[in-house]
Each structure stands twice: as structure tokens, then as C-alpha cells.
Amino acid sequence: MTMAFDNQTLFNQAVDAMRGGDVKRGKALLDQVVATNPRDINAWLNLALAEQTLGDPVAELRAIDNVLKLEPRTLVALLLKGNYFERLGQTRNAAQTYTNALQVAPPFDEVPNDLKPMIRRAVEVTRGVAQEREAFIRAHVASAYNQHSGPELRRFDEALDVVVGRKAIYRQNPLLLFWPGLPALQFYPREQFPWLDAIEAATDDIKGELVEVLKQDRDMVPYINYDDSLPLDQWRELNRSPDWSAYHLIKDGKRVHEHCDLCPKTVQAVGLAPSPSIHNQSPVAMFSILKPGITIPPHTGATNARLVCHLPLIIPDDCSFRVGNETRQWVPGKAWVFDDTIEHEAWNNSGKTRVILIFDIWNPYLNEAERELIPILIKGMFDFMGEDAAARAAFN
């Protein structure tokens, strides 16, 4: 107890001395503290500041590194080390260290006021070096890159955007079932789905049936419908809301006969796709209706064993859809296929309602045995859970 008390007294005296301008005395006192207790992070941090003021960069770095050996994610130590490299003119080393600091920093409004200038400087340096790095790498590959063109560069472009920090990496995150070995493609290449041409050719007929459904203005149900006792998270504002609604043609593998009778051409078109058949789960087909000014928050679907198709029908301006790091604009009559287990979101920033036809299909990379076994596996999962309503809702 006496030693702990003495160390705290020495530390307090050191801080007072430094605040009073006697940095040498403060350093001498801090040397005594760390000699007795080499795990005192606050003493090492203040010693680093003292060494910086006294102009001894070697001792300064040693003190900072002693902190990082004890706790590698100490924000103040990382900021001090970035500043150390910056003062030596080692801007790229500074940027790397500042990047580490920013990764552990709290939101800016929670940063202590005395650290905010250092955080701002860390952001400024990292951005500057990132721009320099991007320009260097793009120039480095330009000669070889310019010898190619077209779709064969798509994956290279995305990889380069990730390397230079313009895009993030998104992975499959299914809510129910992950099927290994399937590619993590955000939007699937259209040529894998030759039957899309026939569905697109039916767009006018499908839209005509949709218009009649909208005129009747009935049987629209909220797209999100969870029990209030569940953790709603990002769905709180849209739960049981008409702002995002659905007109189901096929729901959880079962036809809504009255709706199908009203939309026979839509049902016929959807029937051209290789729909999954999973007990009480799939296929699904619906009109998805998003009102003006509404955003569907980022979320993921149930399993990468199935993919989701969109056929845009009524698309005002300023409506977009993001899957992973790729954002696209819907074009009426132009369908696409995506993996909904990769984070995706949508927004309608227009003043009009947006409507698309949504249906699901088997992932084309599954073999026949897998298509037979997956429904049995999923049925077993739900049978064990007693067909829990919340779990079923998560599937779609």
C-alpha cells in the first residue's frame, strides 16, 4: 500500500511539475514511477510527452511502444506514435498508425476535447496518403489495364476499388442456412438466366395486372410483420407499416389463389423460372410496393441456396438498390438476379410509389442432389423448432 501511494504521489508531482513548465523534473519523477511499476500506462504516456518536449525522439518512441506493448489499442499512444512518424517526415508510416488509431477511436462526438485536434489530423493525413496511394497504384497498372476492355475487367475494377478503399468487402450472411461452395456474387451475370428474356417480354402484361390490383387497393399487407416482443432493430419503423407493403401471389410456398386468379399472366411468367420448392417456405412471388420517401434499411436474407429476382414495373426517378458495394438503378422491364444473403438496401427518394415484382429461384450452382436435400434439411430445422412464426418470417 505504501509503494502504491508513493507511486501515485510521484505521478501527481510529475504532472504538476510538467504543467508548471519544469519538464525535466517531471521526467525524472516519471522515470521513478515506471522503474517501480513498468505497467503504469499513464506514466508511460506522460513520459512520452516529456521526452517529446525535451527533444529526445528515441526515448519518446520507447515510452510510446512500452504503452502499446501493454495495450496495443491505446488510442492516445497510437495518436502520439502517428504524430512521431509525421514529425520525422515518415508520412506513410504515420498514416498507417493513424489508421490503427481511427479504428479504435469512439465516435467523434464522444472523443475528449483535448484529443479532437489529433483525431482531425489523423483523418487528414490518412486521407491524403490514401489519395496518393490510389494515384500511384492506378498509374502502376494503367499500361496493362488499358490493353483490356469490357466485362472481363469487372472483377479487377472491384478488387482495385477495395484495395484503394473506395469499396468495402461484403460477405454472405444468411439468417437461416449457409450453403458452402457457392460464389459470393452480389448481382449474378445475366447470361446465367436465359429464361429472363421471356419474363421481361411479359412486362407489359404483368404491369397491366398490377395496375388493376392497385386500383382495387386491397389485400396489401405490410412487408415486415413481426411480433412487438421481438428485437425489431432496423425494422422498427417499417414493422406493420403500409409504407412498404406486398401483394402476395405465392407466399411461403403456397399460392394465394384469389390473387393468382387476378394475375394469371404474372403467375405464368414467374413459372418460367426454376423456383425452389421448400415446405412452407418457398417459392415466393409478390408485388413489392414502396411508398415515396421510404428507405428499406440494410438487411440480409435467409439462405444463399436461393437467389432473388427483381422485375421493375413502376419506377419513378431517384429509386435505387444496393447489394454489397454495388448500387444500381431499376429500369422498368429489365430484370436482375442477386444474392440476398449479402447486405442490401433500397430507397425511394421520389414523390411517387415504386413497385417491383419479386420472386425467388434456385441458386444455379446447386446440383440435383443438393436441390433434393436442402428442402429436407430446412424442413427438419423448422420441424424441430415447431414451425416458429418468427423463424419463418426471417426466411423471406
What is the average of the pLDDT values?
A: 92
From the alpha-carbon coordinates, what is the Rg to the nearest angstrom? 30 Å
Number of helices: 14
- Count of extended strands: 11
Shape: elongated
Main β-sheet description: 7 strands, antiparallel
Order of helices and strands: HHHHHHHHHHEEEHHEEEEEEEEHH
Structural class category? alpha+beta
Which range does the strand content fall in? Answer: 5-15%
Parts with pLDDT < 50 across at least 5 consecutive residues:
389-396
Classify the helix fraction into a percent range.
40-55%
The rounded distance between the terminal residues' Cα atoms is: 62 Å
What is the subunit organization of this protein?
A: single chain
Give a description of the structure.
There is one protein chain. With 396 residues, the protein is α+β, with helices and mostly antiparallel strands. The protein contains 14 helices and eleven strands. The strands form two sheets. Strands 1, 2, 3, 4, 6, 9 and 11 form a seven-stranded antiparallel sheet that branches. α4 runs antiparallel to α5, α5 runs antiparallel to α6 and α6 packs across α7. The longest helix is centred in the first third of the chain and has 30 residues. It starts with a helix and ends with a helix. 30% of the residues are buried.
